[in-house]
Amino acid sequence: MHDHAHDHHHDHPHVQVDSSRRLVLALLMTLGFAFVEALAGMHAGSLALVGDAGHMLTDSLALGIAAMAAVLARRAPTERHSYGFARSKTLAAFANALFMLLLIALLVWQSIVRLGSPQPVNADTVTVVALIGLVVNIVVAFMLSGHGHDLNTRAALLHVIGDLLGSVAALASGLLIKLTGWMPIDALLAMLIAGLIASSTLGLLRSAMRTLMNGVPASLSLPEVGRALARVPGVTDIHDLHIWELDDRHFALSAHVGVRELKDWPGVLERLEAYCHRDFGIAHTTFQPELPAARPIHFMRPEKHHGPGAHDDPGRASA
């Protein structure tokens, strides 16, 4: 016998729609400036600006994936996908994090190459375009920061922050090259930014991996939850306990619960559900009650009787 408690506490539709619109608007702004930056870079002969434009184009792709995942996550559950599609946002965040690690590797490699053979940079063009890019990225980051609680939007915001730091580096590079003429500063700043982005990206990757692998949420301890549930009045023991993330904001739990008598189960179930929701934020619970095992029957070796009427009784038992 299984008992389920379904209380998903889905986000309000208007909040989700607003988040999707912000992602789409961020996509359009990022994509538009990427083309502007690419044209300016080719006109000025600046490989740095062309490379940053390519970075923004890839970030536009990441924002597009995030926007599609946000729309998909609002679809109702189906017979094939009974939990719905909320985890599509986690999948998009995981893909974006992997993609970001690839970009970081390319950025570090290009920086090492440039340190070996610094390229001339048109400082004036780099400074002006980088300043415009900084403003665009600040606006986009501000748009997304208020809706950055789920992994999907956090992944998109991470890409935008990468662009923002890139604009800061390009601006600093342009100013320093204009003042000092020292070309290697461009590659050194790029490597520094790559390290900062990598730290955030690895954290995001770990969070997404935990959700996709049905790991215990980082905010919960499996032994602690088990001990707490075992203290609920009417419970004799808790075993086969599992806790996992439906997505990064909704948790689920299943467990086998020992009870002394089945008539106590309705009250025990109500207390377990209330405890999970109130103290651990777990809204989706599945509990299976189990009674104490019946006393085993011990079969005795039958005694052999001699004399008239003697017979063996193989069915004789004693508890």
Structural Rg: 31 Å
List the secondary-structure elements in sequence, H or E.
EHHHHHHHEEHEEE
Annotation, overall tally of beta strands: 6
CATH class of the largest domain: Mainly Alpha
Instruction: Look up the CATH topology of the largest domain.
Output: Alpha-lytic protease prodomain-like
Query: Which class best fits the helix and strand makeup?
Result: alpha+beta
Oligomer: single chain
Structure description:
By secondary structure, the protein is of the alpha+beta class. The protein folds into 2 domains: 10-212, Cation efflux protein transmembrane domain (Alpha-lytic protease prodomain-like, Up-down Bundle); 222-290, 2-Layer Sandwich (Alpha-Beta Plaits). Helix content is 61%, strand content 12%. The chain is built from 8 helices and 6 strands; from the N terminus they run βαααααααββαβββ. The protein has helices at 13-44, 47-72, 87-116, 123-145, 151-180, 185-212, 222-230, 265-280; strands at residues 3-5, 235-247, 250-259, 282-290, 298-299, 317-318. The strands form 2 sheets. The chain has a 4-stranded mixed sheet. Strands 5-6 form a two-stranded antiparallel ribbon. The longest helix has 32 residues, at 13-44. It is elongated, with a radius of gyration of 31 Å. 35% of the residues are buried. Residues 5-15, 294-300 and 309-319 have low confidence and may be disordered.
